[in-house]
Amino acid sequence: MNIDLKGKRVIVTGASRGIGRAIATAFAKDGAKVAICSRNIADIANVGEALTESADAVIARAVDVTDSHNVSAFVTEVAEAWGGVDVLVNNAGQGKGGNLDTLTPEDILEHANVLQMGHFRFTQAVVPHMRKQRWGRIIEINALAGTIPTPEGIPSVINRASCIALSRSLGMSLPKDNIMVNTLNMGWIDTGQWDRHFKEMGDGVTRQEFDAMVMKVVPAGRYGKPEDVTGMVLFLASEYASFISGASIDIAGGMGGQIAYYPTLKRDFAESIRQRREMQSSI
């Protein structure tokens, strides 16, 4: 199978690091025109400079996804520069923890404005251009917690579920315009954030112990890699996916309901480490 995306006009949001950067890099290596954005102009400019080595063309801008005018202006700039938009990858947005005892309604609404409304703003801005050319691909980057609720992280559970519902709804309404919409729901893709999670455990925990604890709920027995995501993104952006819309695909190494046990697993692990430290200090 030869996926050829040379010359395709692609927008990737949240592309300054992690999965977004990996996706933008994959499109660039395939010869696409790549427009990228994030909140920080210095970070996104650095990524844009790196992409120019392989991409057909690059536009890199600082965009606030909570600002409808800012989003619309960016999409208009891209469409006018390149004569349209073929692919949107809605990646911007981070997870947010919290539960009934720690959150306020405003906390959830603030997260929703970045995540589900950010995705909605970009989709609303690109669809007129895709309708005009009667061709488009919209790929939503979401999280497994949006399909399988967990007992912690209420903002992520609620807002990811909303993003997935939006994707599936648009995946039913837009194919008549030859615009296909699908969502990819991430499990634990390691783009560096698990290093931070490990460091949060404090002294006395080896990385091997930490990884063994995390992997207890991942049937594949490893973290996902950015390459595990980018291949599916390129496929869904290609002609090979011309009859796929409204799909919700988990990229999680087989992890499903097991994710709900992770908060308890982590607490039990932290408690065992605390007890081990106490025993060691008393010797």
Q: Overview of this structure, please?
A:
This protein is an alpha/beta fold and 283 residues long. The protein has 2 domains: 9-189 and 224-252, Rossmann fold (3-Layer(aba) Sandwich); 193-223 and 257-283, no CATH class. It has helices at 18-29, 41-51, 68-82, 105-114, 116-133, 154-173, 193-200, 207-215, 226-236, 262-282, and strands spanning 9-13, 33-38, 57-62, 87-90, 136-143, 179-186, 248-251. Strand 5 (136-143), helix 6 and strand 6 form a beta-alpha-beta unit. The protein is elongated, with a radius of gyration of 20 Å. The protein starts with 8 loop residues before the first strand and ends with a helix. The model has no long low-confidence stretch (mean pLDDT 94).
Brief overview:
The protein is 48% helix and 14% strand.
Structural shape: elongated
CA gyration radius, whole angstroms: 20 Å
Q: What's the arrangement of strands in the largest beta sheet?
A: 3-2-1-4-5-6-7
In total, the number of strands is 7
Core attributes:
single chain; 2 domains; Rossmann fold; 7 strands; 283 residues; 48% helix; elongated; 7-stranded parallel beta sheet; alpha/beta
Secondary-structure topology with pairs:
Layout lengths: L8 E5 L4 H12 L3 E6 L2 H11 L5 E6 L5 H15 L4 E4 L14 H10 L1 H18 L2 E8 L10 H20 L5 E8 L6 H8 L6 H9 L10 H11 L11 E4 L10 H21 L1
Parallel strand pairs: 1-2, 1-4, 2-3, 4-5, 5-6, 6-7
Helix pairs in contact: 1-9, 3-5, 4-5, 4-6
